[in-house]
Amino acid sequence: MKLLFSAEIITETVGYLAAVFGTYLMIPQVYKSYMTKKVNDISKVMVVVYIINCSLWEVYGLLIHSWPIILCNFIALIIGIIQIGLKLKYQSEGN
Predict the structure, then answer these.
(1) Is residue 29 part of a domain?
(2) CA angle 93-83-74, nearest 5°?
(3) Max Cα separation, the chain?
(4) Sequence-separated contacts (24+) of 87-92 with Cβ below 8 Å
(5) How far apart are the first and last CA of the chain?
(6) Confidence category of residue 4, pLDDT binned at 50, 70, 90
(7) Which domain holds residue 34?
(8) I want to staple 15 with a disulfide (CB 3.0 to 4.6 A). Which of 31, 68, 73, 92 is the partner?
(9) Tally of domains within the chain
(10) Gyration radius of the chain over CA positions
(11) Alpha-carbon dihedral 94, 91, 40, 85, rounded to 10 degrees
(12) What angle (nearest 5°) sits at the alpha carbon of residue 76, between those of residues 30 and 39?
């Protein structure tokens, strides 16, 4: 009997699912920050650590030529940069 799913298909599927969820992780916070212009409850250190984490994963993905890791962390890095930008902009406005 032939298997419906190979280990390679399962591995790739898990990788792409992780990419989707990893990328989505910060989107609700960015949206909330943008809509409310309130960022006092967001830790700047957390966002910086998030950006460093995404950067390191991006380099790792490039080194091993893994598209799920590369794609996820490239987009997540952009989202993290947007969040730190919102934090700096709206925090300086006194919100």
Answers:
(1) yes
(2) 155
(3) 66
(4) 87/33, 87/39, 87/42, 87/44, 87/47, 90/33, 90/37, 90/38, 90/39, 91/39, 91/40, 91/44
(5) 63
(6) low
(7) 18-92
(8) 68
(9) 1
(10) 17
(11) 160
(12) 25
For residues 73 and 56, give the distance between their C-alpha atoms in angstroms, rounded to a whole number: 9
| Residue 56, domain CATH | 1.20.1280.290
φ, ψ of residue 6 in degrees (nearest 5): -90, 165
Q: Which residue has the tokens 């997540």?
A: 76
Q: How many CA atoms lie within 13 A of 9 on its CB side?
A: 4
Q: pTM of the predicted model, to two decimals?
A: 0.81
> Does residue 9 lie in a domain region?
no
**80: in domain:** yes
Q: What is the pLDDT of residues 18-69, one digit of tens each?
A: 888 888 889 999 999 999 999 999 999 999 999 999 999 999 999 999 888 8
Residue 7 lies in a domain: no
Q: How many residues does the chain have?
A: 95
